[in-house]
Specification:
Chains: A mainly alpha, B alpha/beta, C mainly alpha
Order of helices and strands of chain C: HHHHHHHHHEEEHHHHEHHH
Radius of gyration of chain C: 21 Å
Radius of gyration of chain B: 23 Å
Structural class of chain C: mainly alpha
Strand content of chain B: 15-25%
Number of strands of chain B: 14
Order of helices and strands of chain B: HEHEHEHEHEHEHEHEHEHEHHHEEEE
Number of strands of chain C: 4
Shape of chain C: globular
Largest sheet of chain B: 5 strands, parallel
Distance between the termini of chain C: 8 Å
Number of helices of chain B: 13
Oligomer: heterotrimer
Structural class of chain B: alpha/beta
Strand order of the largest sheet of chain C: 1-4
Distance between the termini of chain B: 91 Å
Largest sheet of chain C: 2 strands, antiparallel
Helix content of chain B: 40-55%
Chain lengths: ~300, ~375, ~375
Amino acid sequence: MDPAVAGQYVLNGLMLGMIYAMVAVGFTLFFGVLDVIKFSHGDVVMAGAFTALATLGGLSAGGVVSAAVLVVAATAVAVAAMALLGALIARTLILPLRNAPSLNTLLITLMLGLALREAVRLFYPNGSNPKPFPRLLPADAWSAGGFSLRADSAILLVAGLSAIVAVHLIIHRTRLGLAIRAVAQDPETARVMGVNFEAVVMITFGIGSALAALAGVGDALYYNEINFGMGLWLGVIGFSAAVVGGLGSLYGAILGGFLFAALQTVGAIWFAVPAYKDVFAFGAVILLMAWKPTGLIAEKSAERV
Amino acid sequence: MFRRALVLASLLLATLAADAKETVKIAFIGPLTGGVSANGLGGRNSADLAVRLRNADAGARYTYELTVLDDECKPNIGVQVATKAAADRKIVAGVTHYCSAVAMGTVDVYHRFGLPVIVWGAVLPDITYANDYKEIHRVNGTMINQNDVAAKFMVGLKYRKWAVIHDTTDYGKGHNKYFSEDIAKLGGTIVGTFGVSADQQDFNAELTKIKELKPEVIYFGGLTPIGVRIRSQMDKLGIKAVFQGTSGIVSDAFIEGLGPLAEGTLAFREGAPAEKLPGGKFFLEQYQKQGYSEGPEAYGAFAYAAANLIMDAIEKVGPDRRKVAAELRKTKNHQSIVGPVTFDDHGQNMVPLITKFVVQDGKWMVWEDSEYASGKRKLPRAP
Amino acid sequence: MSATPGRSSLPVAVAGVAACAAACWAFLEAESQWVVAALAAGVLAALPVLDRTGLRARFDAAVHARRALAPALVVTAAFALALVLRDSHFALLMLASVALYVTVCLGLTLQFGFAGIANFAGAAFFGIGCYSAAILAANTALPHLLAVLAGGLAAAAVGSVLILPILRTRGHYAALVTIAFGILFRTFLEVNDVLGGPQGLKVPGMRILGWSFNDPPPLPGGVEASFYLNYVIVAVALAAGAFVLVKRIESSWIGLSFDAVRLDETAAAVCGIDIARWKILAFVLGNFLAGTAGAVYAMMSGFIAPNSFTFGDSLILVSIVILGGVGNPLGVIPAALLLLILPEKLQAIQEYRFLIYAVLVILILLYRPQGLLPRRLREYSAPGPRP
């Protein structure tokens, strides 16, 4: 294969992997503190993207034209709104079900995801159709042969990476992170030590959902199109990536995200009918699980987040 | 005195008769929730409009009531709701299905219960041609007609090299099959065919491959949502080929989703363009007037035409399923807002009027009226 | 409260089942959305009342006292319901679908509720049953009863390729294995044209020993009935068989081993329980049940396509098990009724129905976090209401 084209595939895979990784990190955080799967996570990604779009609409109507201001403001609003939504979900749906079998949380979040999706479809103006997302990032391209790197891709890659690093720093360098890790390791002891369990859970869900909003805005800026169903696949793939990487491990989620993107890209190149790429990627996941039953980065009880 | 009483009495009788109009139910079935719900809602609104207009018409013999059912675009649910409609003896006929796989599954149900239906959106040829059920009709054309016209037209424009992207649903696969056959017959080449899944988001890998193959045209068989994604990602990778779609992308959402990037996109759809026929103009005005929150989309006009065909038949032969089915089958050169309708032995509308569209300045223009046809604007050419 | 269970059990059990059947009938026949809403609210309000007054405990005890009683009563009730609804095609179709979904969910209960293997590919195994029955019935002269059996065997056999990863993984990791399989299965069916591709397959109606299921059943006295009555009979019989099987397993030492495996694998292994054997048994048997139900479903609906076996459909199955109360085979029945018939009854609100449906399920779960009928602890003392 032409090295320039190969480079293009790698770049495409990296972009895709970054979005997957950001979603997967959310799953791994939630699992870390509460041992639950939150299936509405993909739909929170979607809701974040739509919040950003609505904000952009409002700002443009208000006369703001600077692309930089628009991007920053829309992202900030989306992140803040989703963080609140995440905390709210934890408060009203997840914590009340803490003593029920853990899969009941799965069902309730599944239904929440459906409700979010349907609500956007029904109540966002013309929400059942795909929506264009404005091109706000500089589109200058640097190309060589079959390879072209656009400025917007580079910006998004760097932004995604820094977001994940920021989450890592919060968890490993702050007092809040210490509390999160304490709850992850042993909620009862943490509580005895004076950690406000419920607050920590809500904050963790807030952080995970903020990251999901960021993934949503990144996705929107990269593909310039959003729709109410976009979270469905992102949720499934993000979950798969988190599990393949090893639930509870931040690095595992990142690794899983990029691995999944790589599998899909390789599948799309290999097969005459690219739709087989999902058969290929999920088949590989089954084999991986047989080989590494607790994920690539195995869970250690001392370090769950 | 006596005469005046007589007149009064007859007037009274007339109003009584008008009040006592019998209510007749017809069903509408389409996807109202999930991925392709935009089309389902557009069809629902259009059928609803037809019923409302008819009920407002004092000359109609019956009052009509539309029973709306959601098939979710899923065959198992489709069979369920089809049974519900068909087993309900009060329902005389149905305007049914946008999704081909659903229509394939339900034709047997309608046949078994003897419910006459007109398909308003599903394009798979087998729906009418793989059976000879007298209950099944279809007002829209099949994908065969569409691709015949598309292939001839494109070859006429001197394009020779295509890459095909299609979704792996029956819709996309069928379009790929018929278009590829036509192109081979006409001497063009398909340099690569890419089946993709209908809910895919990222097409960079496929498009990078296509970029290497250097096609003049990218043929896309699929619906608006992934059509928007593919066209937009083509641009990011710097692919300059013509984007040629099927009826699935002839929607306002396609243009709204792409903005200026939609310019120069070609697509083909059965039926006359609604805005060009007098009835079509009326339809669009009335649709606006009712204030539906969703647009009619590409197939709304067909649902409207189908509902009207059914109501015309009921007006003529009364609310009897068997008679309505027989009456529908006799339809010949019936003027509708999608052009004249004539059903063949299989209940298929035989007048395959295919309209060619091109996007010009953010609007789907009929090709013949566009500046592309007059030579004022040019479609991209391979260097 | 301390009445001897033996004597008072029969009327309590009969009354309980009859009340449920009456509620089902009202639910199936209700047309107006207000009646449906009132009914749903009534049923939901009745649950805590039944709990508080101890009526449910008495009912449970009554059912517990005579093992064969519950299935016999439920089957009788289902048939009575079917006879009352005999000429209403749609209600019977829904009833048969519910019975088939109950069968699948009993399989999932075996896997998940008993042995602790979360199976998120229920729809895929159901689909394997559908496809094998479709192919066998359309292309071979194999008697249809055997085709149904073959559907179950095929599902069990295909599921066996997952045994190794299932045995090695636990909890959410095992869940991912099945999720991956479910998605892979559906994508493969759609992309590959060998089995009809996205266009799906037509399936001939069931025919057993000259009894054609797609013709109205010959009822005595020339009573007219829908042909779906045939399918209701088979589906309910299948569900009842599955129920008896699952109940027997639960109360036997096999069920005890399942519990041990689910609750603590290490401890179970220490006690000499062969974990692999029990997990394989639960997984294979569960898939077998899903496959047989699928085979009957395919012949009943006459048409199958990959789009009916998506990840979303698997999630509906899991939802039924969770909503019913994980591990309680009886809970599956009201949950299946609710999750299958509710969306159908919400058709009147058209595009809003899934929003309302989701909100309703969320409320039910907040209200009853353990599910509709939570599993009870095993009792080794004499069965009866607790003091």
